[in-house]
Amino acid sequence: MPVYSMTGYASLQNTTASPSTAPDAKGATSGHLGLEIRSVNSRFLDLSFRLPEELRQHEPALRELLTGKLKRGKVEVRIAVESGSANTIPDPTPALLQRLNTVQDNVLAWLPKANALSVSDILKLASSTQGAARDWDEAVLPLAEKTLKDLLSARQREGGRLASMLLERIGQLRLLAQQALPLVPQLVTQQRQRFLERWKEAMALTEGSATPESAQDRALTEATAFAIRIDVNEEITRLNSHLDEVERLITKGGEVGKRLDFLIQEMHREANTMGSKSAALELTHISVDMKVLIEQMREQVQNIE
Questions:
Q1: Predicted pLDDT of residue 85
Q2: How far apart are alpha carbons 15 and 88 in whole angstroms?
Q3: Max alpha carbon distance in the chain (Å)?
Q4: What would the pLDDT profile of 36-54 be if each residue is shown by its tens digit?
Q5: What is the pLDDT of residues 219-246, one digit of tens each?
Q6: Domain boundaries, the chain
């Protein structure tokens, strides 16, 4: 499975004529149904909708569609309806005029002093009955499915770029770990030699009150304790193990963002421990370089689903 980013954007438009009239008929209405989906990173799936009132009834179906395909991210869905026409004046149908006349007669029968419908009132009512809700009901979900498909493609492309960057950083971290391994034995050898030299100097000052064997044993004991304090083999082993798991998850793909985030925290802990155990400038530099790379990985992992 591919790796998906939580960052993406997609938008589509649907243009059609009103089903109540033919596209080339006098007064035929047309319009644009625009739908866009944008998403950014989030710990959980957070959906928000900005829909016109006439399309508000589609929110449950849109929510079900998105939750079936998306697992994490702050996702915003916007729908805009722009109506247009060859003639801006609506053309009331005979059925509508007959219905309005019947309703008007019923109202006047109960309210004789009520004003009769004007031409302006009739045109407004005709325009409202030919509104976007009737025109776009059947187009909303198909358009949302196409837009969601484009969004998933965009998130997959971005996820591929993130995966490539993470694999590159993994290679750099492995190289730094290899550079750190031989430094510890060298430091232990150097420190043992220093202890021996210091004990020889101490023996010379004490005029032989201590035996050479006891002095050498004490120097070796101190060198051993020093070697234990600066030993980073365990940290490097755990770091390599975490790198193997990160690489496996990236190759596997799917919903791996939370697991990668946890592993990045563990990697940072190992690199930080290496720095605290450092007894040489070279090892300190390696630890700092590791933490920089791991921090770069952390920033990108925050965007993976």
A1: 52
A2: 17
A3: 131
A4: 999 999 989 999 999 988 8
A5: 666 656 655 565 677 888 889 999 999 9
A6: 8-153, 159-301
Q: Which residue has the tokens 């957070």?
A: 46
Strands 73-85 and 45-50: parallel
Is the CB of residue 287 less than 8 Å from the CB of residue 232? no
How distant, in Å, are the alpha carbons of 170, 228, 239, 249 from that of 244? 9, 26, 9, 9
Question: Is 1.20.1510 the CATH classification of the domain at 159-301?
Answer: no
Residue 77: is its pLDDT beyond 50? yes
Distance CA(229)–CA(248), nearest Å, equals: 32
The upper half-sphere exposure of residue 296, i.e. CA atoms within 13 Å in the direction of its Cβ, equals: 17
Q: Residue 166's closest CA among 12, 9, 302?
A: 302
What does the pLDDT read at residue 25?
43
Q: In Å, how far are 14, 36, 142, 183 from 58, measured between CA atoms?
A: 16, 15, 12, 64
pLDDT at site 68: 93
For 51: left if phi > 0, alpha if psi spans -120 to 50, otherwise beta; the answer is: beta
- Amino acid identity for residue 106 in this structure: N
Q: Show the DSSP H helices in the chain as ranges.
A: 59-69, 94-110, 119-129, 132-180, 183-205, 212-230, 233-252, 257-277, 281-301
Which of helix, strand or coil describes residue 194? helix
Determine if the pTM surpasses 0.85. Answer: no
Q: Quick one: tokens of 6?
A: 């939580």
Buried b or exposed e, range 52-63, using 16+ CB within 10 angstroms = eebbeebeeebe
CB 305 within 8 A of CB 255: yes
Angle between helices 281-301 and 183-205 (to 10 degrees): 150
For tokens 């625009």, what's the residue?
34
The phi-psi region of residue 233 (left if phi > 0; otherwise alpha if psi is between -120 and 50; otherwise beta) is alpha
